[in-house]
Design a protein that fits this description.
The protein has 315 residues and is mainly α. It contains nine helices and three strands. Strands 1-2-3 form a three-stranded mixed beta sheet. Helix 3 packs antiparallel against helix 4 and helix 6 runs antiparallel to helix 7.
């Protein structure tokens, strides 16, 4: 019989997403693209005397900052994945970064909304030709960035299925850090599309009111994205029960005969990774390892703690 040593029972707590390094590289690439476009818009606005370009450049700087937060979060999580100071690893750092980015996204939306309302009552002169060209280039950069980041969303479909317990709950495994970065570039793309539409309408038809009106609509859409991201990332940070299907799967595998679950806690520790603490009561309890083996085929369950108590008439 093989005798186990202490090292045999020790294990890592690395709960990073399956595509963590790939998503990190994508995010840094988009940071570079966004920062380059930001500098071009600020320089163009200064050279052409266009406040619209200058304002859009500084607006893009907030997105560049949020994307940098996402990139540094990936880097920190990877470098400290095995740091014993983090009890369950650094897998949730992306959710923290995603929540912070969602707050910044909401602030951007409020600023766009405020500026748009002000411009309804106090129209400003617009350099249509220069502003339209730069906005079009900005849109191209944003769409390229969205394509780079959007490809990372496919990674959430690569996690193992729970043998009949998938329930289409892919959003429980999403990388909220990547999702936040994606929303930032989509918000910028949306504002570019709306800006181009408003500029062309004002330029050719004299509808100067359309530019700020479209800005208000864009602000409301971005606020909605921000709220969804804050809600989802915040739930992970507060250890909200992530998936009723996973909870039911655990109960179905453990509650056999006179075995009953007295206490069950399931929470997300990283994209595609969940932890569970289970307290079982039974008239005739089995060894703890037997119960763990019943859960071994749940691919999304990465860390399991089981305690068993003998309790006559447990049901």
């Amino acid at each position: 019989m093989h005798s186990h040593t202490l090292d045999d029972w020790r294990h890592d707590h690395v709960f990073l997403g399956a595509a963590h390094q790939r998503n990190e590289r994508r995010t840094w690439l988009v940071v570079g693209l966004t920062a380059t476009m930001m500098i071009a818009e600020i320089a163009g606005g200064t050279l052409f005397g266009s406040m619209a370009l200058l304002a859009d450049g500084w607006h893009m700087s907030t997105h560049a900052g949020a994307l940098a937060i996402a990139a540094f979060a990936y880097r920190f999580a990877r470098r400290h994945a095995r740091d014993p100071r983090f009890a369950f690893g650094t897998g949730k750092l992306g959710d923290l970064a995603g929540f912070a980015s969602a707050v910044l996204l909401a602030l951007v939306a409020l600023l766009i909304g405020y500026e748009s309302v002000v411009r309804v009552f106090q129209p400003v002169p617009i350099h249509y030709a220069e502003a339209t060209v730069i906005a079009a280039v900005g849109l191209a950069v944003n769409l390229l960035s969205a394509w780079i980041l959007g490809a990372g969303h496919d990674s959430r479909h690569h996690h193992g299925h729970d043998h009949g317990h998938d329930h289409d709950d892919h959003h429980h495994d999403q990388d909220h850090n990547l999702r936040a970065a994606f929303f930032h570039v989509m918000a910028d793309a949306l504002t570019s599309v709306l800006a181009i539409a408003g500029l062309l309408a004002a330029w050719f038809h004299g509808w100067t009111w359309l530019d700020p009106a479209i800005g208000i609509v864009g602000a409301l859409v971005i606020c909605h994205w921000s709220w969804r991201l804050m809600r989802d990332a915040g739930a992970v940070l507060l250890d909200a029960a992530p998936d009723a299907g996973l909870d039911a799967a655990i109960r179905a595998r453990l509650e056999h005969g006179d075995d009953r679950i007295a206490d069950l806690h399931v929470w997300r520790v990283g994209p595609g990774h969940h932890a569970a603490i289970v307290a079982l009561v039974s008239d005739s309890p089995l060894p703890v390892e037997d119960y763990k083996m019943r859960l071994a085929d749940l691919a999304r369950l990465s860390h399991v703690t089981v305690e068993v108590h003998r309790c006559n008439h447990s049901h």
